[in-house]
Amino acid sequence: MRSTLIASAFAALALAAPRPQDIEFDQVDAAPDAEIYTPPTNFTKRDILEVADALALKTKRDADCAPQPAGSGPAVNNPDTPGNFLAYQPFIDAANNAPTPQGYTQAFQNLQASSETTSYLGYKTLSTYGPILCQEYCDQLYGCEAFNIYFERDPSLAPAAGCPNPASFTNIKCVRWGVQVNSATATNTGETRSFQVVIAGSNGYNKLAAPNPQPGFTGPMELGGAINAPNDPVTNTNTYIGYKFFAFGTGSGMVQTYEAGVEACTAACTAQTAYNSRHPPAAPAKPNVCNQVVVYVLSDENQPQGIYCSMYTESWAQDYATNYGQYRGSDYWGVSQAYAYTNATYSAQYGNICAVGGCPDGSYQGGNCGGWGCEEAR
Ligand SMILES: *[C@@H]1O[C@H](CO)[C@@H](O)[C@H](O)[C@H]1NC(C)=O
Ligand SMILES: *[C@@H]1O[C@H](CO)[C@@H](O)[C@H](O)[C@H]1NC(C)=O
Predict the structure, then answer these.
(1) Is 125 in the pocket of ligand 1 (CB under 6 A)?
(2) Hey, what's the signal peptide range on this chain (predicted)?
(3) Closest CA to 261 of 302, 328, 299, 306
(4) Residues 81, 158: one domain?
(5) Which of 295, 311, 345 to mutate to test the pocket of ligand 2 (most atoms within 8 A of CB)?
(6) Which of 214, 247, 289, 359 could lock 306 by a disulfide, CB 3.0 to 4.6 Å apart?
(7) Statement to judge: residues 198 and 301 lie in one domain
(8) Tens-digit pLDDT profile for the chain (378 aa)?
(9) What is the distance between the alpha carbons of residues 355 and 333, in angstroms, rounded to a whole number?
(10) Rounded to an integer, what distance in angstroms lies between the CA atom of residue 170 and that of residue 85?
(11) Which atom of ligand 1 is nearest the CA belonging to 173?
């Protein structure tokens, strides 16, 4: 019966569609041109052009030459030239040996240009060339699809007529993008007038697709990390009811793929709800319902170990996804591909809880006591 229904639904669609589904360009042509962004350097192109113009026109200008914030990367000063910066072996090695963070694929490696494309979502400077730090920065922003990490040769003084070519600093930049990057978008080779900004060791990474929806749940909702939820802000009850972990592997109780792990997590959430209802607490308390399960890949030093599933009786907003990873001894345990699934019965009634600043639209202050209604649950 079901397949007949699906077949007839397809038939209806086919009839409704008058032409083959080619891309139509009318609306594309009518739309404004996409905006291409170049990540900013700490002094603007305009500054450089003004210096260049000032030099060219030999007009007298007040020298700016203000000291710039020291760069976080190693200085290349022997000699301090753009050519030497580009040839600097530690930059090349850093780029070539960089790990691809979990949840991403490498788009390009060790280029001497940074990406400039649409959908610029900001940058930060890093203290080390760490793609995993940059991955966390990307994951923290909903909609970040890609990032670019590179070394940039920047001036130690704001270039001006009095100091057209100051000593250089090295900045390590992490730029995030809302669209995927590839070597064709890595076109910003710096700036060649006056002080020469150049770029080395530029690596680009693209985020993998979100996992599949799961029956009986809404989501996946993209998270910047694992949820770190406080008590329910209204009832002051703990909503965290524990976790399951499925190691990657082929043995029993293991999962072989991320997608299988997501299915295992949502199934574990449902099983937990069923178990709790078979083992209810003393009245008037109600058995806990797993209403939100947060899934992510847990990696030890970027080596994926398994799927971690955290369970909650209430559904938390993205703002609470603040656990990006942590050290355990000298190993960094990273969180990647974090998504939340919410029990569909619950999400039909309640939004995500959020009581911090900048709450997403549709979030509410909590107080439903795990979907049972507060009065009964108390
Ligand atoms: C730019 O300047 C800001 C503020 O001084 C500083 O925090 C940041 O690290 C600088 N970035 C670069 C790329 O120099
Ligand atoms: C959703 O929660 C209800 C209880 O409110 C439970 O009976 C049901 O099994 C849950 N659904 C899933 C997919 O876990």
Answers:
(1) yes
(2) 1-16
(3) 306
(4) yes
(5) 345
(6) 247
(7) no
(8) 333 333 333 333 333 333 344 545 555 566 556 566 766 665 544 444 444 444 444 333 334 888 888 888 998 988 999 999 999 999 999 999 999 999 999 999 999 999 888 788 999 999 999 999 999 999 999 889 999 999 999 999 888 888 889 999 999 999 999 999 999 888 888 887 689 999 999 999 999 999 999 999 999 999 999 998 999 999 888 898 888 888 888 888 888 899 999 999 999 999 999 999 999 988 888 899 999 999 999 888 888 888 999 999 999 999 999 888 888 888 888 899 999 999 999 999 999 999 888 888 889 889 888 888 775 444
(9) 28
(10) 9
(11) 13
